[in-house]
Write a structure and sequence with these properties.
This protein is of the alpha+beta class. 35% of the residues lie in helices and 23% in strands. A hairpin with a 2-residue loop joins strand 6 and strand 7.
Length: 190
């Protein structure tokens, strides 16, 4: 969690919203999204592309509380429910460094990360089928699922729905380029 300490700025956080501006559904302008974060007490709010990526400082507010406020505000103002998953800039750096497929030499253009709302239990992880999508690979590390989809993520059967149902959580995915860019934006806010 991000806390404001006496002589330092609060941590930089990244919010990842699931399912907005995808296929013409759940339209939410990024300017309006940034305003929702500012109204919730966040500082230095910046968005990246149209798919619900927000870099911000939480001020004195609790990041989990901000996630709930944003989700409720979107429900109230736009009429649809959007999960909001957050990571700190430090966590995002660790996620970047821990990608087993990048370390094995996979092309960055074939890599994705699913960010999970909750830490999955071992039974859920063990229930995942490594042969579900031949040619594709995944690795669960903490609250992330790393994906290597050489034939493209659009053809993969390694979907959010599959992992959500097996791991009893909610996820949102980002390609590797977006993850890198979000870390760059977070570093610039530091």
């Amino acid at each position: 969690m991000s806390k404001n300490t006496r002589n330092s700025k609060p941590d930089v956080n990244i919010a990842l919203l699931r399912g907005i501006n995808v296929g013409g559904k759940n339209k939410l302008p990024m300017k309006a999204l940034a305003a929702l974060f500012a109204d919730a007490g966040c500082e230095e709010v910046r968005t990246y592309i149209q798919s619900g990526n927000v870099v911000f400082r939480a001020g004195s507010a609790d990041v989990e509380e901000i996630s709930s406020i944003i989700s409720a505000s979107i429900q109230d103002q736009y009429g649809y429910q959007v999960p909001v998953i957050t990571r700190t800039a430090g966590e995002l750096q660790e996620i970047m460094e821990a990608n087993p497929f990048l370390a094995a030499g996979a092309g960055a253009d074939k890599l994705h990360v699913m960010f999970l709302a909750d830490l999955p239990d071992s039974a859920g992880v063990e229930s995942l089928d490594p042969e579900r999508s031949p040619g594709d690979e995944f690795a669960v590390r903490g609250r992330e699922v790393y994906l290597h989809c050489p034939n493209g993520v659009a053809r993969s059967k390694l979907t959010n729905s599959y992992f959500d149902s097996r791991l009893s959580t909610t996820s949102t995915s980002r390609n590797w380029r977006t993850v890198r860019k979000l870390l760059d934006l977070a570093a610039g806010a530091g």
